[in-house]
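Researcher: First entry.
Model:
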Amino acid sequence: MQLFSDPWFVATALAAVSLLGLSKGGFFGLGTMGLPLMSLFVPPMQAAAILLPTLLAQDALTIWTYRRTWSAENLKVMIPSMAIGISIAYLFAASLSAADIRLAIGIIIGIFVFRHWLGTRFDRLAPRPTTATGIFFGVLGGFTTMLANAGGPAWQMHLLPQKLEKFTYVGTITMLFAASNLMKIPAYNALGQFSLDNFAAGAMLLPAAVAANYAGIWLVRRTPTEVFFRIAYVLMFFIAIELIRSALTEKFWPA
């Protein structure tokens, strides 16, 4: 395969699936950097199609791990709204760039994290987690996961303020990731992104992806709850910086 003849692509792809594995294991947000990394070598939609087989394999592993710990109340609101977001993104896939989506979601995440860090005096400015916010962030996450593989941060903006038990929080986002990846299959196929080369590339990355997934699960189980959520907010902050940086670079200083 031509892509794997480039050692820089191989190194970048391995880094991307490793970040996805740690993210799937519970350190959500790290995986958001996977697509921008891959997009250094291939178009964003092709990168997403290459990563999809590894994502589905990781989903199977994490669903089994967190199969008893998830919030049904959140899922019954967010999964249908996520489907709407994916459908809208499919319609706009040809006219919106991944850079625009990354820039928008990066700014939103940054505001969200700063509001949390600045303390309770700003609580009145933050939307309370309700059915309405679940629908809104479900749609937003579906939209951004389809176009930029960046749905997790939007879902976190609805789930983190609820202060769910650690494994319930992880399990709920795990189910959202799995549902979104299944929903994206027909959309990517309709956009012509399913090819033998893309599937083969994804299959070759699978062992590294699964190993990183196990590492993420192991780390989450051994991280105290308070420390885990502090890490979650810090990761979201750095993800916001990376999304904004990569978007601005792509828009104004293309290679």
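Researcher: Second entry.
Model:
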Amino acid sequence: MSITTDRLASLIQRELAPIVNAEVKDKSFGYINLTEVKVTKDLSFSTIFYSILSDDPKVLERAKNALEDAKVAIRMELAKKIKNTRKIPDLIFKYDEALAYGNRIDKILKTIK
């Protein structure tokens, strides 16, 4: 990543966190935490990794659907906040499995003791 993509990724993550939680209408899964943002070199796509507190597959699916439904509104709000770029990248939301993986490892270690 170059300086431009790093700065844009950081700016997107900072500005996007409150927008995502305001625009997502389904609050049954709680707060959505944005863990990382990656922007492609040509600044056309940004992959946003998110996590929620539940590992239930039904809850994860509802969160994914809620983010996909609100994607256009989220991108429009982001464009209002970030004015110094010519183009706002398309948003791709992906669930960050690191927290779930860590919890699974923790459970395994507790059963070993």
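Model: Note on the second entry: The radius of gyration is 16 Å.
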